Amino acid sequence: MISLEGVSHSFAVRRGGAPLKVLSEVSLQVAGAETVAMVGPSGCGKTTLLELICGLKQPDTGTIRCAPAALMPQRDLLLPWLSALDNASLALRVRGVGRQGARAATRPWFERFGLDGFERARPHELSGGMRQRVAFLRTLLSGRPVLALDEPFASLDAITRAEMQRWLAHALEEERRTVVLVTHDVEEAVLLADRVLVLSPRPGRLIADVEVALPRPRARTDAAVVALRASTLARLGVNA
Amino acid sequence: MRPRGSWLAPIVTLALVLGIWEAYVDLASISSLVLPAPHAVLAALYTDRATLWHDLKPTAAEILLGILLAGACALASAVLLHFSGLARRALYPPLVATQAIPIPILAPLLVTWLGFGLLPKLIVIGLVCFFPIVVTTMSGLAAVDPDLVKLMRTLGAGRAQTFWRVEFPSALPGVFAGAKLAAVLAVIAVVLAEQAGSSSGLGYLLTVTVANLEMAEAFATVLVLVAFAIMLFTLLGIAERRAMPWIHERGNTQAR
Fold this sequence. Notes:
The complex is a heterodimer of chains A (240) and B (256). Chain A has 240 residues and is of the alpha/beta class. Chain A has two domains: 2-68 and 145-235, Rossmann fold, CATH 3.40.50.300; 78-143. In chain A, 34% of the residues lie in helices and 24% in strands. Chain A has a six-stranded mixed β-sheet with strand order 5-6-7-3-8-9, with helices on both faces. Chain A has a three-stranded antiparallel β-sheet with strand order 2-1-4, with helices on one face. In chain A, strand 6 (146-150), helix 6 (158-174) and strand 7 (178-182) form a beta-alpha-beta unit. Chain B has 256 residues and is mostly helical. Chain B has a single domain (49-249), classed as MetI-like fold (Orthogonal Bundle). In chain B, helix 8 packs antiparallel against helix 10. Chain A binds chain B through residues 51, 54-56, 68-71, 73, 75, 77, 79-81, 90-91, 93-95, 122, 124-125, 138, 142, 144, 148, and chain B through 145, 147-148, 150-157, 161, 165-166, 169, 244, 246-247, 249-250.
């Protein structure tokens, strides 16, 4: 579904300056319907990697083969002038579905995602958790086989984040997709993913590929989850 | 929600200014040729109401047509300049130049070239109103969140889709800010255009009354112009709230 071979990428920091290398020789494979989490220190190129997967950037070297991917950005980026329903159905409208058709197709999802009753609410009337759900639904309804989630819960408070992690685990179980989840929260990665890829500090290289062969649903207090979290943090050079 | 008594504040300000003005003119025995008292201006407003109404009509038509014309050209230009770096480099300096032309020099020239009709007035108003709308619309378009544009690309949107669904609505506050500026500037522009050569309109009336030393009548004419400018500004504010209810709902006062 996704295949990266020796991908490197650099930024031009300022005009004339030496380019800043953010990714170095990254190779990885993601199979269909697999959820892969990417963790790493700040500035290690996680977001750049997602943008490469989504085709928003081209690598300097290496090759990327990837099914079409839809991005769920860090901030929800809902359009303030559209209702929650119209925000969620944005991808359908972009694909040329009429307003009424797009709304009718989106409405059943609102019930499934615990958003019913908020169809007509504008984004500023929704809680942070609800906005992320609408943003996730918008990504899901893009109909693209790959979902690229960029720290989707980073802006939420700890309680809402825990709730949303449970919710996303459940939603992904019902709607199997290929998911690339970027996070700096190792616990989140272990709770949600089938595999955790660990990136080094900049320039990001792949330093570990951890299989999470744990049954679902997983709780953050499970001994296996705690142990895996500790060993992954150790690979990042953090003492748990 | 508007705070209660929001109409009271401007009325108190106005009453205070008028009171001081009236007291100054009466107590210091200022000649009405130098500064007419507010009561004399109001009296002139009443006595000359037929003339003022008669001359307001062509002026109002010129202002409205001028703003519409300037607005349409400005929106089209802002979009062109936003999308094309080449157009921006080629056309932005000349646009700034049009704004630096002294209108009191240009207006009589336009009358010489084009006569006493509607066209020279529209050109003057257009020149004055065009620029603020272009600048504020362009800054509105430039301020669009680049992450939103990226998001639209991953959802499969092309350039046109992204413009209509994201960039244009994001830039609307800028469009309205420019239109409100332009509405007020248009009133100044129309006076300069009419004074340069016309046989009717409030600018023409102003030329005649000042020449005849009818200062109270001249002030009454200015009063009508000011009232018209305030009306336009208020109507645009209402249209703004109608067009962008999401900003109003959020209780965001920045847009005012």
